[in-house]
């Protein structure tokens, strides 16, 4: 039973391999509507898991196999990174990543020499960036929820239900808007080395599920008013996160779109414009603010007696502050005086009146 459940976790996220294309390869591109291959992949995964559960698949047994599965995923990430490092010596210099071509083998292995490793039209980095990790995360959460329901002889706790629902919404949103990842630093600048391979295949599914892992072994009673307040916090975070990202993506695709045409902008020497109103007039990185609020919301159902469920939140604070520093540096280099003017007009980076 445990082996069958492990096979589900290992195999289901890969069923959409042929559908993962990089920029310009059978995709709608930034200017068109989303083609939703990642979301369809999630839907097919949910269908197959549902059929498996109906047929008696003991998915809850995954909760007892997380350590060996994480170890196997780490070994897989290492050998995949080694293969990609060796493969990078067969591609032209134009295919190498700006930061992973230092000449130091250890550094380049870690960061990745090749920017977007491809096999025909299949873009391995684009595929790994979201699908295996996010769907693995959702499957692990489901397994933990089912195991808790078994222990309670029927239904999972309200705390476990909220954590699983909040995080599934996050996964579904990321896969619905999968093409937005094409504009991220990971895709544009970073090579595909051990750092990203480990993050995609190990860190996301096994560390991001820490709240559900905690709740399985430390059940928490949650009153309805408290649960309602946590849900409200989650909604606020999601509205900021999705509103900011959608506003940015719409403006990039079509500045004349009625939803963004009235927003104030700053012209730049590159010919592009910087939004200085709407969500992007609140702080310089409102999407990061929404992300952090959501991270806090799905930690709070675990109570406040242990630090472990809040590891993700504190880790995310460090990650996003570092990413914001990289963003700011690159935007200053790219936009120059226009970026300085934007920083003067919008002085706060992530949290209004605080940072």
Automatic annotation (TrEMBL):
GO terms for cellular component: endoplasmic reticulum membrane. It catalyses: 5alpha-cholest-8,14-dien-3beta-ol + NADPH + H(+) = 5alpha-cholest-8-en-3beta-ol + NADP(+); 4,4-dimethyl-5alpha-cholesta-8,24-dien-3beta-ol + NADP(+) = 4,4-dimethyl-5alpha-cholesta-8,14,24-trien-3beta-ol + NADPH + H(+); 4,4-dimethyl-8,14-cholestadien-3beta-ol + NADPH + H(+) = 4,4-dimethyl-5alpha-cholest-8-en-3beta-ol + NADP(+). Pfam families: ERG4_ERG24. Pathway: Steroid biosynthesis; cholesterol biosynthesis. It is a multi-pass membrane protein. It is found in: Endomembrane system; Endoplasmic reticulum membrane; Microsome membrane. Its EC number is 1.3.1.70. InterPro entries: ERG24_DHCR-like (IPR001171), Sterol_reductase_CS (IPR018083). GO terms for biological process: cholesterol biosynthetic process. One of its GO terms (molecular function) is Delta14-sterol reductase activity. Signal peptide: none annotated. Keywords: Cholesterol biosynthesis, Cholesterol metabolism, Endoplasmic reticulum, Lipid biosynthesis, Lipid metabolism, Membrane, Oxidoreductase, Steroid biosynthesis, Steroid metabolism, Sterol biosynthesis, Sterol metabolism, Transmembrane, Transmembrane helix. The chain crosses the membrane at residues 42-59, 66-86, 130-146, 158-177, 192-210, 222-241, 292-321. Catalyzes the reduction of the C14-unsaturated bond of lanosterol, as part of the metabolic pathway leading to cholesterol biosynthesis. Belongs to the ERG4/ERG24 family. This is Delta(14)-sterol reductase TM7SF2. It comes from Monodelphis domestica (Gray short-tailed opossum). The lineage of its organism: Eukaryota, Metazoa, Chordata, Craniata, Vertebrata.
């Amino acid at each position: 039973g445990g082996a069958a459940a492990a096979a589900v976790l290992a195999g289901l996220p890969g069923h959409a391999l042929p559908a993962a294309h990089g920029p310009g390869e059978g995709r709608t591109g930034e200017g068109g509507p989303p083609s939703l291959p990642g979301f369809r992949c999630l839907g097919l995964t949910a269908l197959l898991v549902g059929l498996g559960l109906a047929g008696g698949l003991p998915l809850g047994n995954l909760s007892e196999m997380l350590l060996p599965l994480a170890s196997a995923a780490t070994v897989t990430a290492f050998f995949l990174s080694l293969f990609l490092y060796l493969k990078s010596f067969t591609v032209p210099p134009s295919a190498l990543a700006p930061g992973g071509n230092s000449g130091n083998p250890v550094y380049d292995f870690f960061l990745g020499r090749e920017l977007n490793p491809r096999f025909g039209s299949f873009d391995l980095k684009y595929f790994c960036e979201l699908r295996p990790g996010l769907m693995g995360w959702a499957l692990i959460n489901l397994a933990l929820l089912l195991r808790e329901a078994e222990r309670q002889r029927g239904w999972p706790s309200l705390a476990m239900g909220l954590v699983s629902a909040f995080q599934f919404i996050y996964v579904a949103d990321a896969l619905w808007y999968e093409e937005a990842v094409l504009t991220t630093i990971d895709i544009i600048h970073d090579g595909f080395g051990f750092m990203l391979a480990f993050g995609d295949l190990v860190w996301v599914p096994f560390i991001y599920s820490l709240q559900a892992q905690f709740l399985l072994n430390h059940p928490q009673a949650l009153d309805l008013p408290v649960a309602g307040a946590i849900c409200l916090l989650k909604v606020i975070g999601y509205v900021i996160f999705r509103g900011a990202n959608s506003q940015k993506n719409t403006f990039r695709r079509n500045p004349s779109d009625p939803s963004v045409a009235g927003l104030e902008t700053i012209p730049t020497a590159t010919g592009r414009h910087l939004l200085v109103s709407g969500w992007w007039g609140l702080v310089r990185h409102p999407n990061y603010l929404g992300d952090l609020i959501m991270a806090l919301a799905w930690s709070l159902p675990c109570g406040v007696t242990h630090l472990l469920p809040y590891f993700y939140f504190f880790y995310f604070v460090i990650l996003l502050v570092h990413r914001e520093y990289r963003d700011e540096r690159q935007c200053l280099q790219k936009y120059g005086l226009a970026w300085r003017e934007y920083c003067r007009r919008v002085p706060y980076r992530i949290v209004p009146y605080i940072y």
